[in-house]
Amino acid sequence: MAVYTDVTDEELESFVADYDIGDVLSCKGIAEGVENSNFLLVTDRGQYILTLYEKRVHEADLPFFLGLLEHLAERGIACPQPIPGRDGHALRRLAGRPAVIVTFLSGMWPRRIVPRHCAALGRAMARLHLAGRDFPLHRPNALGPEAWRPLFERCLAGAPGAGSDMLSPDLKDGVARELDVLETAWPADLPSGVIHADLFPDNVFFHHEALTGLIDFYFACNDFLAYDLAICLNAWCFEPDGAFNVTKARLLIRDYGAERPLEPAEIAALPILARGSAMRFLLTRLYDWLNHPEGAFVRPKDPMEYWRKLRFHQRVEGPGAYGLTS
Amino acid sequence: MAVYTDVTDEELESFVADYDIGDVLSCKGIAEGVENSNFLLVTDRGQYILTLYEKRVHEADLPFFLGLLEHLAERGIACPQPIPGRDGHALRRLAGRPAVIVTFLSGMWPRRIVPRHCAALGRAMARLHLAGRDFPLHRPNALGPEAWRPLFERCLAGAPGAGSDMLSPDLKDGVARELDVLETAWPADLPSGVIHADLFPDNVFFHHEALTGLIDFYFACNDFLAYDLAICLNAWCFEPDGAFNVTKARLLIRDYGAERPLEPAEIAALPILARGSAMRFLLTRLYDWLNHPEGAFVRPKDPMEYWRKLRFHQRVEGPGAYGLTS
Which of A85, A213, B151, B286 is most buried (CB neighbours < 10 A)? Predict the structure, then answer.
């Protein structure tokens, strides 16, 4: 779940009075998301999402994230829309945190992924990339390749009371060797633009298998567009038992390409991008697992899931492993 | 938070198809409540609450709880209403758990209690007691006086890896002595009926200081009516710094009495009932604290808060301490 900051009824009423969204009927913390505190706000006009930004989101990045949501919506991408207060500003403060109210997006994220979900995801992601092309703000990927080795070293240095001895030599040596490979083989140049960078199933809503919207743009940044695809190969195309589902991968890539055809260099780079993406989630999960605060509400995700995914991509012989017929 | 059982989109759609509540637009886990899994369900007809009953609620008790909600609503008490499926049955199964959909109650629970909240609470509680008089089902209080000593003994026996040595001799001896007192001095007979038995602030909704409804009837049972009042003296009338706010207590009892006048025996029994109520929450919190499962989403509540409240009631010289002028 994620409610790190509670909001009193009085604080909320005075906060909402600065908007033109009606009278608050209810406000309930949502047990989803891990970075921020989210509430489902019901007024006599409808439903809204209230987000309080917690420490892991840098305030300086908020204009990028909120501006991007507006930019994308103007170009037909279904995503939450920041609602401005009466003074025209969407970014405000509540309970000592930066806070926004955004529109409510209907749909549910798919608990059991079927191939049709992956096809719809591919198409939506390509449209997102196209819509982001003329977004004027720029945000480097804070969790890109140059961040991985320092993050790994912070994991090795260990958390208080935990320590790096918890990590097996296989894992430590394997990650160190893979970082060497990634630093050497990472592409120098590929088509770039704004990517979502966290399109996991819980950030993609569907209604009866139709994709209804994308949420949680708080890792969005400028990077290789095909890296977003590589993140989704990891997040959507492995079965719960660890098997890679090539049908899902093929549909994901095929429907992406129907909206934005991939260049040969992007296709060739998919295996290394998938390895890099697996490394990124392995390391952030490992760090969170080692630094999981006692008494926190959030259950840390399993880092080893991404170690197993990384090892799959290390063994592939080329992009054909993802169902591509060249 | 409380989402112990997740529900897949497919399970949910097939579950909701048995109701006449429209098409599911969204279903989000709610980060409130500790006993059951609760979801805010949005359909094209409105909002509903979906509850999955977890292990601590006995299935055999569900007809009592659900029947009570219907009984109370027919008598004008604002509380969630179980919604029957097309076959007329409200109690169904989802994701392997007993499950119901109930009506959505607007309002927010008060984070900062002011005296007017206590007055409104007293009035609503008395109306609840009056409305419950002719409820035909009966459920003994599973957490009444005869349950306290066995529960304390289970705390002393300790949890795996924890053990009773965590408990100070002051606390252990103090609880044992208090149990002796309670077992001797507990009233033999007082006006009885259906009580809520868990009317904490997070179970009472307000809208602009008007009480809009009561929720979470899963401890409701037959017991002394004044015991419900004693539970609220503990849950509503202490300040965050531990001080007892006699103004809140006086308004709570006065407005209760305006709807259902208290008998002299009930007034005389308030101090011992308040001690018993403090003991009940001290022991269940202590038990939860000692048996808190690792990795659980729920942060255990502080048992010692109720130890301090118990000590307050031990020192009072009579019901006058609660603002009553006899």
Answer: B286
